[in-house]
Amino acid sequence: MIINFDRTAAYRCPSCGEIAFGSFSMFELSGEKGVRIECSCGQSNLIMIPENKNNFIVSIDCLVCDETHKFSLPFQSLAKKDCTEFVCPNVAVGLVFIGRNDAVRGAVVRNEQYIEEVITACGLEHTGKNGVTMLKALDKIQELSDNENLYCECGSNMIDVEVRENDLVLECCLCGASVSLSADTIRNSDFSHLKQLILKRKK
User: Fold this and answer.
1) Among candidates 98, 102, 63, 3, which has minimal Cα distance to 186?
2) Does residue 40 sit in helix, strand or coil?
């Protein structure tokens, strides 16, 4: 009987939006440094470090809520389960997948399909790797609107929102003032902590 100690980890990069894959051996987790899986963009990583001899801590910066989440991964799960999935505790979207290679890649595909279903249910077109980013942006815009913190400098609060593949456009229904927010800007700025958004007319 051949025992395979190789494992695969996958996560969605909060910086570029792509799915990052990395492989490691369970023996690598025995050291104090643990394992670090870095996205090809170089802007994020997934960290797995031992908590004790029976458990590991998985740490990831969340694309959805801009928090750093820490999950507990028992050694028994890593050794025996085909794939362990961790989801954002604030939004039910898969963030991290760890296990045997084929099972991890299958879980990633299923999670992507789930995200597309959510996007469709929201009346949006497919937005590829930016799907979660746009859902997060729409949630924030709705929050600003509900709190009357989204309006145009002309005084109107009637703002139309158009979601595209790589950006989101807000336009005043009264005067036509608009602002475009790229997916990269939404991911890499303090957008989720924005207190107010005012559309300004072009001079």
Assistant:
1) 63
2) coil
